[in-house]
Amino acid sequence: MIPTSGKIHKLNTGLVTACVVGLALSYYAYYVETSKEKDSNYEPLCDISEHVSCTKAFMSKYGKGYGLISEDSIFYLPNSLYGLGFYGLVAIISVCNKYSHAVFLLILAVLSNIGTVYLTWILHLLNDICIVCVGTYTVNAIILILSYSKYRIISKPIIQRSAKRKRH
C-alpha cells in the first residue's frame, strides 16, 4: 500500500498535469478565437465539418462571458481567458496540501463541472461538437475526481481526530 504522502504526491501530479492540458486547450481556444476575429478566412484544425466546429462555439454569443455577462461589462471576455485563469489557479492550489486548500480545490472543481454541464447544453443548442470544448470538459471531470480523492485523503486524519475527541 502506498503511504498517504505518496498518494497525495501522485494526486498533485495528476492535478497539475490535468491543468497543463487545460491551459494548453484554453490557450488554443483563445488563439483560434482571436485569429478568427482578425481574419474571417482563418480555418483552425478543430473545424472539421459544419457540426464539428470549435469556431462555431467560440464565435457564438456564448463564446464570451458564457453568454451570461453583458457586452458592456469589463468581464465580457472570451471563455478561454476564464479557462486560463481557472487552470492556473487550480495548478497553484493543488500543490498545497492543507485541508482548507483541498476544500477550496474541490469547490472550484464542482463549480467548473456545473459550468461544463451548462456549456454542454449550449453545444447541444448550437447543434455543434467542439473538440476543444469537450477536451476541457474531460479535463474538468478529471480535476473533480482527483480533487475529491485528495480531499478524502487529507480530511481523513481530521475526521479521525474528531472521533477520538468525542470518545473522551
UniProtKB/TrEMBL annotation:
InterPro entries referenced in this protein's UniProt entry, alphabetically: VKOR (IPR012932), VKOR_sf (IPR038354), VKORC1/VKORC1L1 (IPR042406)
Keyword Signal part of the UniProt annotation: no
Localization (cell): Endoplasmic reticulum membrane
Top EC class, one word: oxidoreductase
A Pfam family hit: VKOR
Residue ranges of every copy of the Vitamin K epoxide reductase domain listed in the record: 8-151
EC nos: 1.17.4.4
Biological process, per Gene Ontology: vitamin K metabolic process
Annotated transmembrane regions: 12-30, 74-96, 103-123, 129-148
One term under GO cellular component: endoplasmic reticulum membrane
Membrane topology: Multi-pass membrane protein
SMART domains: VKc
GO MF annotations in UniProt: quinone binding; vitamin-K-epoxide reductase (warfarin-sensitive) activity
Keyword Disulfide bond among record annotations: yes
Keywords: Disulfide bond, Endoplasmic reticulum, Membrane, Oxidoreductase, Quinone, Redox-active center, Transmembrane, Transmembrane helix
Family in the record: Belongs to the VKOR family.
Name of the protein described by the UniProt record: vitamin-K-epoxide reductase (warfarin-sensitive)
Organism: Aphidius gifuensis (Parasitoid wasp)
